[in-house]
Design brief:
592 residues, alpha/beta, Alpha-Beta Plaits, 9-stranded mixed β-sheet, 28 strands
Length: 592
Amino acid sequence: MVSSKGKASSIQQAQRIAVLDRDACIKDKCGYVCEKVCPVNKMGEEAIAIDEKTAYPVIVEAACIGCGICVKRCPTKAISIVNLTKDLGKLTFTYGVNAFRFYGFPLPVKGAVTAYVGRNGIGKTTAIRILSKQLTPNFGDYTKEWSWQDVLEEVPVHVAKYFNEIEGKELSVKPQNIEALRAFDGTVKGFIEHMGFSTRLLEKWNLKIADRKMKELSGGELQKLAVALAMEKEAELYFFDEPTNYLDIVERLNIAIKLGEFALDKNLVVVDHDLTILDYMADYVYVFFGAASVYGASSSVKSARVGINEYLQGYLKAENLRFRDYEIHFGSGAGGRGSSKASKVAFTYPALKKSFPSFSLSVEAGEIHEGEVVGIVGKNGLGKTVFMKMLAGVEKPDKGHVEADIKIAYKRQYLEADSTLVKELLNKVDDKAVLARAKQLLQIDDAIVEKQLNQLSGGQLQMVAIAYTISLDADLYLFDEPSAFLDVEERLAFSSLLREIAAEKKKPMFVVDHDVALVDRIADRIIVFEGESSVKGHAHAPIPKRNGLNLFLKLLGITLRRDVDTKRPKINKPWSKRDKEQREKGEYFADD
């Protein structure tokens, strides 16, 4: 039996990182299996000990041989052990014994938009908390009370200069979790005044929500309000953690434009998973890499194009570091098989109409072929979800009839989580082979499977919902905003899964999403929605992907081209030479 105190010194030199998920650990039930099976312990040494105060196992990294036996034998997969292949330098922060740790100081570039790109759970939010002085670096010694003077004596000169410059200055942080804003019991107007701001900011952002209750706001309205409040504050430095969640492509672009203009005389740090938007707004990029929930590190600062491309390629040139064993590819070859006329028609729907007291939707008749993926694009408030609900039989159209004798698998836009165990939910699926493939690609491990749905993060819940839906026996699959809460690699894993299963099972799929790069990667054809948000919407019949994206972008007044190296979609700067050339040709989506 040992105390965790004294283990901190081993963290600094460790080339092996061991993390214990205390939420998953069932020490009282398993009888400390990890301690008993450890070969080092069996030889009389101590690689796994029991903390006297907490009774949790402590993995002594300096003594651990990295055999992985404890990882395999842990009944809840609460243990992660990673052998580092590269010296990451001095540790910046750890949350405690056998807890997540972060390496690096990704400092913002003055007068520019500095972006962080990387997977969920590898330290982007931790970095923001450190650089905004909400979290004090402890350099691995979590038992010491660190003052900022202590920190300045430990960090390099340029990092000390940064912290000295922001000392006593106002900092503005738009948090990742905006749901906490709903806790305010009152109207939006009351909330804004409570925060010390003028309601005039609602006019600037065209938000007609002053008299609405905070708890009644949609995710998009809440997001725009959070961004507006963060920008309204007079500060030395601004941090925006995932500012485009819940927003459609137009709203995302508006945010990008506002932040870009704002950065002309401000210092901004932005975290986001929509690469198309991030590329548009960012001047500089730090690439984050590591193992989710185990450790994270940041690269050196890079130009936006170079940083995003190196992230997709999985290789950091300046660091000579490969952090992923595969490259992420885009391009028309990833999807876009045209109209799929060579395959049989699997599902047809007639012209449909649906009216509500303040909104009406009309849908042109269409058909979808075996193994085809149809992407659905359009601004928020045009009826995309209503269309999906009519196909699923949840909403009945006022005019037209959707075939009722086919099986539908429907992943809804908003997911509900209760105390059901993930493994109990997944045991209900029809196709265990597809489920196994989904779990592999989406990295739904045993630690996730053993949790309750309401214990999952937003991204984990989304991946479980996707895996469950695609593993059902159905004639038609519907996915409404599957990229919400997913990081870049998770989105691309979903696209690979979708393409693979659609081809194997020869089943048609509809996907609604606002991430243009994702839609480009998965879709054969496109349904474009147009109209006036929250008033009326109209859905075109499915058309080939290139034509569909061209129509969609023309409606938005945006032109896209492909990056030369990675073929990812890039938004042209307004009225740049390339933008004007494409507009003149009518090529709003240049697929070259």
